[in-house]
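Please, structure for the following, as tokens.
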Amino acid sequence: MNLTATVTGRGLLPLLLLGNVAMYTVYLGIGGVLVPAQVAAIDPAHKVTSLGLVAGVSAVFATLVNPIAGALSDRTGRRNPWILGGGLAALGVFALLGHAGTVLLVAVGWCLGQAAMNVYQAALTAVVPDRVPASRRGAASAVVGLGVPIGGTLGVAVASATVGTPSTGYLILGVIVAGAALVFTRLAPERPAPVEGRHPGLGEQVRVFLSCLAHHDFRWAFIGRALLVLGYFTVSAYQLYLLTDHIRLPAGLSPAAAVAVLTPISMGAMALATVAGGVLSDRLGRRKIFIGISAGLAGLVMLIPLVSPTWTGMLLFGGLNGLAFGCFMAVDTALVTLVLPRAEDAARDLGVLNVANAGPQIIAPFVASVIVTTAGYGSLFLIGGALSVLGALAVIPVRSVR
């Protein structure tokens, strides 16, 4: 698909940054702090299992909604209505989620929130292949990737400050994403691309939807992303509980405050690696070496808290893990946009790829809760590291990108 927009090229990048900052503000602020804290307050005795249930079921919604929303935006020839609709729907859901008083209601609310956010994400993600030329994809992906450290830092700061009054935190984060959606769609108007008049049947839609995975390079990019994200979320989804029950914190430092300290360190390192990785991969015309090294490093640094379950070990882990994950996501996103099977199906295919982001989040909470209850928190790092190394190896078979 080739959308003609009033804002393109360099002028589009600040708006993409804003949109992605808002998205990761929600994901890391709510998913990383508010939901775990809310679950722990409601069901402290079974918080590990309950959080696994909430996170896993909500990730199912993310997995299902993202590619469907992407395919619908492809068929309508528009991105902006989906960005705006997702952002406004998220605000409505989060305004209610903060008042949930049972684990079931938290699960329902976060499922609906994930659905709304993935409508927003599917359309926003497709803007890069729609409007940015291939030669600038690394730089664009670096700018998009900065949404993780900036949004993560902002989201955790808001969530940590409002963890005692979650309804306030949820509302603030909802306003942020709705505001970003309004600004993006107002300042980056688009002309709809022509859409085909024939609408395929359900069976054909399923076959077309899955056909991109038959593409060799896209399939391996999918596998590598899935493994790395699975390794990352096996650990990060339980960060608050790790700091509560496993890591030896200094006297007077609460787990929520520790998250607020760790996040800027990790996200600052992620920001540096995101920019450096994206720009250097453009300049050198190489993607795979950056992806392989960064994923391998992500695996190795998981050993630090395993060997040293201390606050110092977590600080070192946070910085190095941020460097590895930031470089991987920036360059891997650029690689993915270069191996899409069909440009006109960009949002749909990126939605399929996003299953590699959301799918591991389905598995990770359940796996992590089983690991913690049977083998302890330390084993999370060992398994997360092994998965990340496998993610580094998965990029080797990609043929069309160096």
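The two ends are 25 Å apart (CA to CA). The chain has one domain: 10-188+213-394.
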